[in-house]
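1st attempt posting a full record on here, be nice pls
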Amino acid sequence: MSEPAAHPVSDAGAGFAAILQRWQAGGRRSAPIVMGIVNVTPDSFSDGGLFFDPDAAAAHGRALAAAGAGILDIGGESTRKGATAISDEEELRRVLPVIRALAATGAVLSVDTMKAPIAAAALAAGAHAVNDIRGLQGDPGISEVAARHGAGVVVMHNPGLLGSATPLEGDVVALCLAFFERSLEIARRAGIAEDRIVLDPGFGFGKSPEQNLEILTRFEELGALGFPLLAGTSRKSFIGGVTGRDTPDRLIGTLVTNVAAAFAGAAIVRVHDVAEHVEAMRMAAAIRAASSAAAHGTAA
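the predicted structure (as tokens):
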């Protein structure tokens, strides 16, 4: 068992913590934070190859920030089902130039990786948080890296499957919560500050289409542990299963899922289509605020 990082070498996650604190301070009036996806990959399920060039990826990130993204999530390795694993060297070659370029703009950045060496290099290059699809339960070093840098973390539920629709056995929400409890214990032991931890139920990872929909209907229950929640439904296959739309044409279905998550208290929605979600999240927040005001007999 490792000792907690008593003296972090940096406070990389301060910007990430600050944006979460602003969201929490607004209560029901707060629109969920829109996290824009920047995939520097040739094979991601939705936009693979579109922004594989680092300059194109950085330009895309700047455009997403200008459209209202509060966080940019930069990933260099596809996590779709059947994706080919890449070396650490290749992942670093893809993401570091983009992180450095976007860090220079002052944007809040997360790195989408499940590998401790990538997380360490990304945080040193200017990232603020680590978005780990293994929920701190894959690479044992990633929690220590996050703690050492004072970084934020997104803890995603994942039973160990990449982009799989294989159903879990049992109550899917209870399984997510049990997984999160294990991850939170790992975070506590490493010394990760609680004000910079976000939980993500991992739509599409080891869950059937029906289970993904069930998580949406019970999304509020995931807040039982007291941490902000992230919804990552963007263009996922379960949306296509309902709408019949191919991956690039799932905007409307994605908007509906994220509005549902917003009404259930989501702090962050991770999306490809930022401008549309910024508008939708503002509208959802306005309705939530008006509903709360009506319930208390006060003006919105």
